[in-house]
Amino acid sequence: MVKMPNCCQQQYPSAISLIGNSRFIRASVSPIVLIALCLCTSNASAQESLNAKPLPTLSQSPISPLPAVRSPALGNQISFNGRTLPGNWLQESGAANQITTRLSDGAFRQLIGVNFLNSSNWTRQPIQWFSSLTKPLVLSTTLLGGYRYLDITNFAQTAGWQIASNGNTLVITTPKVQVTNIIQSQQPSDASVTPLQPTRILVDLNRPTPWQLAQGSTIKTTQIPSTDPDTPIPKSTIPPNREWTVTLDAIADPVLIERYTPQSSPAAPTSLPDLLKQLSPATPLPAPEPLIQKVEVANNQTIIHLSVPFGLSPQVSTVADPNRLIIDIRPDPLQERDITWAPGLRWRQRYINLGTDRFGVVWLEVNPRTGLTLKPMSASPNTLMGTAPLIQTAQRYSAVAAINGGYFNRNNRLPLGAIRRDSQWLSGPILNRGAIAWNDSGEFYFGRLTLEETLIIGNNQRLPILFLNSGYIQSGIARYTPTWGATYTPLTDNEIILVVQKDQITNQLPGGKVGEQVVPIPQDGYLLTLRASATTNASLLPVGAAVTISSTPTPADFNRYPYIIGAGPLLIQNRQIVLDAKAEKFSNAFIAEKAVRSGICTTSRGTLMITAVQNRVGGYGPTLAEHAQLMQQMGCVNALNLDGGSSTSLYLGGQLLDRFPSTAARVHNGIGIFLKK
Fold it and tell me: Which tens digit of pLDDT belongs to each residue from 599-652?
């Protein structure tokens, strides 16, 4: 699908923000002092909450204090058993040189394999990791910048970890662990839910250890050639299996590695007796792929390689006594969650029924009246050209949460829709497509958007400008401002380029071939490009001519809002489905496509939801019509479809909630959610 980036000449302040219950702190002091103040405030707030609502918490372990460190220390790298990985952390020294270590919850969940349990109190996060679900461990939390940090001090001591900071890097060493057994078993399935049969893998350990799950690429199968040379090999109609890996910081017994070492397949017979040919199928059916493809030990880790059929995915959990990792291969792996992550920010995920289908949906519900704001974000800081992973863009802006935004051209990485920030158009809308507008007061507006720009020449002659800072290329006049970047390179052959400075045409240049000429964009003006039939207007625009621009969005209500992101199609207005993808010039193939999808909507509660709809159980994602019905069922009053497919990315505090980062495409722009300072 096409995507786009939004130019970001002015970055939003990345000053550290901290919220402790309902109190806000803003200070113009050095970063180190500010961090110390923030941590103290958050700790006090968390303690007040702990006193008000007693919950089970970690017990203190009789372990000697860690060595003193400079207080506070923070960084964004973790050396984990010798492997350097990205992850944000904080450390501070307290009384008697006791050190408190805080890890961002995204790193804690993804690197350690911790399961987050439901919580309505953002200052306390219940977790499960080789422990009881009925009496979970509870960690206190701190909001700082774009991250939520969990106090893992007692957790790490209980687990026997050694922790030290080294500049920007937090060094963590965990005890040596043995994998004592790996068992595969078939589990009974609920035929009323799905005909697909789940399978369970049990990994026994001599003590708890970190683990990670990763999704790989599809697995190419080798077809057995037909024994009859006159019979062609039929193409499989079944989607290929996908590789998944489960990696444990543990060493497997050599017997286990040998047990799951792939055996070479016997060569297919070159011929069969005529009678056997008649009794045997023309093309032998390939043997089913073994679920466990291979078990290997590398870098002091045990890696279990899985081949998982289409429609199934691993769901990993842990239990204690015995210490065991459970890998369930099932059609519905999404685990339900309802976590108040920050004041006014709620992380939810569950399955939603639509007819006979069930769709996994992950979403964030945002209350803009509780200290949260929204801003458009772009992948490149100084130009509209470029793409980047949403994680990278969100971290550059210090966003606490984010979702991918509008469309763009994947080849030239240019925007294909509206982006407006701080009342300035960065890129104009196209094709009367759906858009969302908002302000800092928590007011939102949805509709189909056009921008009518007109070039007015001195004799009051008027020429339409069709596109503003857009990668959508058609015959006519387009305008490029400094927001586009420092220079413009022709996007079509034989353009005529007009340089406008201080409302006067100062130069007229031939564009030549696509991509050959680089034309500077004046900081006190803009460029006009005349394409195809519009080049005949060059004689009306001589050097020295005075020109002005009139610019009006339709509907005019859009002009009341400083922020706009365009995508489409528009799905819901005033609780009614208004989907009309043909009117917004989407192709038939796009309309019928089944794909994972991103969306944004408002609710009757005055909240905003940013959503990622995943594949249906045992199949592909929703069509546009199904997406609209799902959003309506979730309680959306107004809703807009955002760019989807591989672009769909829902970000929270350093992590993607809806998919593995390796499977997410680079995107051009997004919508960021920020904590007010």
Answer: 999 999 999 999 999 999 999 999 999 999 999 999 999 999 999 999 999 999
**What backbone torsions phi and psi does residue 137 show, to the nearest 5 degrees?**
-70, 145
DSSP helix/strand/coil, 300: coil
- Beta carbons of 131 and 320 less than 8 angstroms apart: yes
Distance CA 385, CA 365 (A): 31
What are the residues facing 138 on neighbouring strands? 126
Question: Is there a contact between 211 and 108 (Cβ–Cβ < 8 Å)?
Answer: no
Q: Return d(Cα 449, Cα 552) in angstroms, integer.
A: 11
Find tokens 């002659």 and name the residue. Answer: 461
User: Which tens digits make up the pLDDT trace of 22-79?
Assistant: 333 333 334 333 444 344 444 444 333 333 334 344 333 333 344 444 557 899 999 9
Q: What is the pTM of this model?
A: 0.85
357 Rama sector, left if φ>0, alpha if ψ -120 to 50, beta otherwise:
beta
**What span, in angstroms and rounded, lies between the C-alpha atoms of 548 and 34?**
48
- Per the CB < 8 A criterion, the answer to whether 109 and 653 are in contact is no
Burial 32-45 (b: 16+ CB within 10 A, else e): eebbeebbebbbeb
- What sections of 448-494 are H helices per DSSP? none
Residue 437 near residue 454, CB atoms below 8 Å: no
* Closest CA relative to residue 417, chosen from 647, 193, 219: 647
Task: Please report the pLDDT score of residue 380 as a whole number.
Answer: 94
Digit-coded pLDDT (tens) for 545-555: 999 999 999 99
Is residue 634 within 8 A of residue 361, CB to CB? The reply is yes
Cβ burial of 73 (10 Å; 0-12, 13-18, 19+) is buried
What letter represents residue 509's amino acid?
A: L
Alpha helix (H) residue ranges in 53-137: 105-112
Calculate the CA 5 to chain-centre distance: 15
User: H helices within 288-363, ranges in order?
Assistant: none
Max CA separation in the chain (angstroms):
93
Could you give the angle at the alpha carbon of 315 between the alpha carbons of 312 and 320, nearest 5°?
A: 150
Radius of gyration from C-alpha coordinates of the chain: 29
| 3-class state of residue 456 by DSSP | strand
Q: Which residues contact 65 (CB under 8 A, 6 or more apart)?
A: 96, 97, 98, 99
pLDDT of residue 229: 61
Helix (H, G, I), strand (E, B) or coil at 358: strand
Cα–Cα distance, 67 to 281 (Å, whole number): 71
* Cβ-contact 17, 676 below 8 angstroms: yes
What is the reported pLDDT for 32? Answer: 38
Element (H, E) at 256: helix 254-259
Q: Are 346 and 339 in contact, with CB atoms under 8 Å apart? A: yes
For 661, the token pair is 């980062």
- Residue 97: predicted pLDDT: 78
- Residues β-bridged to residue 427: 419
Report the amino acid identity of residue 655.
Answer: Q
* Model pLDDT for residues 342-354, shown as the tens digit of each residue: 999 999 999 999 9
Q: Other CB atoms closer than 10 Å to residue 487's CB: what's the count? A: 13
pLDDT of residue 35: 40
CA 613 remoteness from chain centre? 12
d(CA 559, CA 286): 62
